[in-house]
Amino acid sequence: MRMKMISKMKYKLLLFIFSVGIMAIVVGCQSKEQNQSTEVGQISISEIPLEKPMDAEIKHFDLVAKKETWNIKGTSFEAWTYNGTIPGEEIRVLEGDWVKVNLKNELDEPVTIHWHGMVLPNVMDGVAGITQNAVQPGDTFSYQFNALEPGTYWYHSHQNAFEQIDRGLYGALIVEPKEKSYDKDYVLMLDEWTIGENNRGMMNMMGDGGTPGEMDSQMLYQTFSVNGKSAPNIKPINVNFGETVRLRIINAGYQKHVLYLNDHPYRVAAIDGKDLANATLTSDVLMVAPGERIDLEFTENKKKDWYIDSPNAVKESEDIQIPVNISGIEEKSDASYRDEQNLIMIDMTNQGNMNPIIDNIIQKPDVEYTMDLSAGMGMMQRGMSYTINGETFPDTEPIQVKKGDLVKVTINNNSMLDHPMHLHGHYFQVISKNGLSLVNPLVKDLINIEPHEQYEILFIADNPGDWLFHCHDLLHATGGMVTAVKYNGYYSPFEIGGEYHNEPE
To answer: According to CATH, what is the number of the domain 8-39+356-500?
Structure first.
């Protein structure tokens, strides 16, 4: 019986086979001298105060990490879950709420919870060995933070993250706005599994049967899911005629996913939790990168039930077929992306206006960092190695900052693979792509860098601590594509490994 989680031995074997097949075409980058600071800060991140008003009302949630039997496409397997379901129990609060989540670990291995996309105090970030010790079997840990900004977020383990998220340890965190632009909203969490047979050989992967930039991860997964189920068992979106619906799409997997609303007009309402204004209606195909969140809104005007599907280049895309059922209508539309001749991928840099976090983008930054991403053969039987400036974590050079710095990062992808780079604890502003300045501000916490692309981003160092900056294709993160933003004057008292067996990736 096949399970989603791929053992480390199988993972290394598959990556070794993959690396032998592509090492001739993967472009590496030259190692650079490292100038990593050895300065020890004066303030422990655990001593950064949590500025909570004494009279703040707190919304309490309990999450239990435990094993559960799960079934997808008729195959039952042992999953790891928060509160017994995949995705884990949804946490939904109102903007401005104070949130307390009590985690209890009933698994046989240590776990954590990372609040992906949330800007919160460093010690609440949930990264084992960086911001806390992993929660041991039988132990508990409480997370507390202020849900200041409305938006779509998610939570997942950041202890041995590649394997634990792969087993099912993730869920949605929704911060609702006080004033809504929609009547209903639905969360769609996308993922991949190792259920079924993978007949995709190396030559096929490099031809029409695969998606460019994802040759490695596509060797591993054979089934796609939406909210833990595959078609025809995906729960429908129920809507009344004339209602406005927000779809909160979260990619919890390690591959890009594409969705097509079958020519139904929609607008992009938010990206990575940040609202877009004045977005025009479109019916283009939507692409969501690993770790990314995109909110759509549409007003129901169809006279037949319809469905959302995936015009991806791989066979597993047939598993994604999301019914949209209109109240009082029984007739089902049989339209599909297969009926369309020329599907166009949406351009996220030209969808609307986002409020910039940095008005003067031409001012001289206080810190500049070049991040060269590469992939190639690893050392010491690690299979593939995914590097930043020629090094793998924890030997990568951190981005050393002080509070208040304006930081510019130039990211170059020198490999043949996609790298969705995610920054913890901060939002950044994308200012250029491939040397061309963006007309409209794009504010995110994750940007997918396709092969041989370059992006320039700016962020303000306004949240002290130690924060990861890593690839959210966690196949790549566990292979070394991780660095950190480190604030001068602060230090982490936690260590990777040690008695708590801390494994952030």
So the answer is: 2.60.40.420
